[in-house]
């Protein structure tokens, strides 16, 4: 196994994965923000422009992206809560469980949203 | 049993991996493997060890990408295949081969206010610390750190910010912050509250994951974060 493969394997533990998920979901959410504001700004061009955008947003690909967005949001929330709990509440034997809860909760919320969309 | 194909770092900061074939045996530790190489294959190989029984921590090195005490790591535990990769600890300057320079590591303990400063002299008699007192309980595990550097080598924050004090130094600071005999509390909190201090920790917890003594520097660092916040709100720092 190469050095980089070993280094990657060494980071394959719950807390590190939670850290990466927190960072990546945060970056993706911040990348989404300009698009969000762009969508809202359509209202400034009148009712018809906003409706046209909303109709376009009904297509399945956009809906699928929304599922991803909600998963990102819940992941970011869950992983953020994990950090806050660890730092504000002190040590608990729950630390690894919280990682699992953050991850599991995110998947559940995303799945519920997915079921409602389709 | 088949031979182990061992890849060992040779050189200092610059160098390369060199390959050795070492006979695989039952109950073989990584330290046994390194010692076999030095005694039978290449006497110029440099590595460090002392106690061989998990007391001193000086034999720590990177084994298949993970910082470990080599005397307490069995080959069977870390080798799914017959390949083994040995390197000096990450985040430390390399002196030669598997020997790293611990100076920065220990200097950071000083920087974090790691020296005890009491108010009494040797003539005042021993201070009595109740074992079940809050401060003593808070550091019950943390005081067992022997400074082997495994946590420091496992921390990615040090890779990204070389000034970061690191898990061991912050753990040491935490034990003194909670020490009721110590008189440098505010200075120490100030020392650990900068950009390279406790708030730089991103809770990746590789330190806690890897500590051979099963301590949790993450716990100590989060304790420091709370104490620094309290002191800042009170206007002490």
From TrEMBL, chain A:
Its cofactor is heme. Keywords: Heme, Iron, Membrane, Metal-binding, Transmembrane, Transmembrane helix. Coiled coil: none annotated. It is found in: Membrane. It comes from the Bacteria. GO terms for cellular component: membrane. One of its GO terms (molecular function) is metal ion binding. The keyword Protein biosynthesis does not apply. Heme binds at residue 76. The chain crosses the membrane at residues 67-86, 98-117. The heme is bound between the two transmembrane subunits. It holds the Pfam family Sdh_cyt. Its main location: membrane. Membrane-anchoring subunit of succinate dehydrogenase (SDH). Part of an enzyme complex containing four subunits: a flavoprotein, an iron-sulfur protein, plus two membrane-anchoring proteins, SdhC and SdhD. The complex can form homotrimers. Belongs to the cytochrome b560 family. This is Succinate dehydrogenase cytochrome b556 subunit.
From TrEMBL, chain B:
Pathway: Carbohydrate metabolism; tricarboxylic acid cycle; fumarate from succinate (bacterial route): step 1/1. Transmembrane segments: none annotated. GO terms for molecular function: 2 iron, 2 sulfur cluster binding; 3 iron, 4 sulfur cluster binding; 4 iron, 4 sulfur cluster binding; electron transfer activity; metal ion binding; succinate dehydrogenase (quinone) activity. Binds 1 [3Fe-4S] cluster. Binds 1 [4Fe-4S] cluster. Residues 4-92 form the 2Fe-2S ferredoxin-type domain. It catalyses: a quinone + succinate = fumarate + a quinol. InterPro entries: 2Fe-2S_ferredoxin-like_sf, 2Fe-2S_ferredoxin-type, 2Fe2S_fd_BS, 4Fe4S_Fe-S-bd, Beta-grasp_dom_sf, Helical_ferredxn, SDH/FRD_Iron-Sulfur, Succ_DH/fum_Rdtase_Fe-S. Its EC number is 1.3.5.1. Residues 135-163 form the 4Fe-4S ferredoxin-type domain. Coiled coil: none annotated. Belongs to the succinate dehydrogenase/fumarate reductase iron-sulfur protein family. NCBIfam families: dhsB. This is Succinate dehydrogenase iron-sulfur subunit.
